[in-house]
Amino acid sequence: MQSFIWGSTIPLCIRHDTSAIPYLVNVPRNSYLPLLLPRLNSFFRHNFGGRGVKEDANVNNKFVNATSFSYDGILLKNLPVGLLYDLYQPLLPWQLSLGNGPLYEMHDTFINSVKEADFVRNGTAKGIMSMSKENSTQLWNSVQDNDFRAFHKIHQVLLNPPTPLKHIPLRLYVPSVPNATTGFSSFNVIQMLVPPITASQEIQSVGSALSLTLPTLFPSRGEEILAQPILHGAPVPFHAPLIDLMKEAAYADGWLHVCIRMLDRQIIVLPKSTVQGSIID
Prior knowledge:
By secondary structure, the chain is α+β, with helices and mostly antiparallel strands. It is built from ten helices and eleven strands.
């Protein structure tokens, strides 16, 4: 399943307001939009004003390198491309605009997320912290190059530490009130320490984890379920063991980034008292 996910791409149509010519590209689900910036800035500088002019001093004085991406006026966060697509569910190819918003340091952002996932799994980040410089560099390079074989070799070390697994790195993206201008919802990111085994000594499933974290949307029994978990563009079976999902379908940073999609297409504002975890965003 991992190799299939790494081979999945999302078609993008990227525009800059200085050019009439868009940039078309297929981007891996596990990748990040800022990794496209060097080639995008080169492309739009060359096609400044919609003309195929060559780079020169005059163009450079007018063209300002882009640093951010937006969709229908929404500044996109520094999240995996596949996760962003699942959050906004746009038509394909996805129409994005380049702008001059915050510039993210991709390497540090990614490695910090890997450290957080390692800490959640083991109660310590020694796995990634003790990794050699060569392996740490290879881990990041494999994401940049979308090289699953190189990634798998390093990531398997992180997933198989000498100590038992403590918790599953799980983040839930829950829609909140739609923006009055765009009509799109913002999202609360909910995180909770979910053990691989339940209190009744059963294997933690997707359904039991959701009932534990969002009981209003996913009641344990006898009540109607109001939402559906989405991972890598597909509904997640409630009976799926969470530990297996972590090993096979986590994003490159080690997290299970799960979108919560309302079944009736309506937004429910969840009181904090009904969320059994931390709202981190």
